[in-house]
Amino acid sequence: MKKLLILLVLAILPILTFADFQIGPTAMYNFVFNDPTWSEVPKPNSLSDFTFGADARLNFGIIQATGYALINPGSVTGLVYMPTVVKLYTDIGLCVDIFFVRLGAGIGPNFNFVFSDPNAPTKPDMFQLGLNFKAAVDFSLGGIALSLVYLTDFNLTQSGVAKLFEKIDGNIGLSVLFKLF
Predict the structure, then answer these.
(1) Domain boundaries, given as residue ranges, for the chain
(2) CA-CA distance, 108 to 93, in Å (whole number)?
């Protein structure tokens, strides 16, 4: 066991030497981009229309690993009940640097923990597992990067992948990333 741990540390150290690690806060708006029932672009009504949390990224050349820890506070609006959801997104993908702009996209698993009210009329599953797709445009300003992010989740089924292309919904947001090393 000790040999495995030492081997793992020795394998990770060279990667971290040449890697770029960034972490920072993120705020996102929960949005449906092409809903056919729209007469106009919807405006946020409550705090549950937003998701807040942290964004962490490890860049190694053109490979980028990303992790998000997000919380969507629940709300009750009239008869509509939205539970509080803690979302953990991880993905790995590709990124390209063009001067001070970094374009990136990735895919990976996500884990949702739903905390619903015991008095709610419907009770969703407490633990939900799925996949996510992330696209980001980062503007590097020295040790700080401003990132525009689109993040959506889907199921790895034929209907889940079809949903990804037919009704574009998810989170669009802004992250401020600080370079640690």
Answers:
(1) 21-35+45-179
(2) 9
- Report helix, strand or coil for 177: strand
Burial class of residue 19 (count of CB atoms within 10 Å of its CB; 0-12, 13-18, 19+): middle
What pairing do the DSSP bridges indicate for beta strands 75-77 and 63-72? unpaired
Closest CA to 145 of 11, 15, 26: 26
pLDDT at 124 over 80: no
Please give the residue that has the higher pLDDT: either 62 or 115: 62
Rounded to an integer, the average pLDDT of 4-24 is: 79
State the pTM of this model. Answer: 0.77
CA distance 88 to 53: 10
Q: Which CATH fold would you assign to the domain 21-35+45-179?
A: Porin (2.40.160)
pLDDT of residue 46: 64
User: What is the number of other CB atoms lying within 10 angstroms of the CB of residue 45?
Assistant: 10
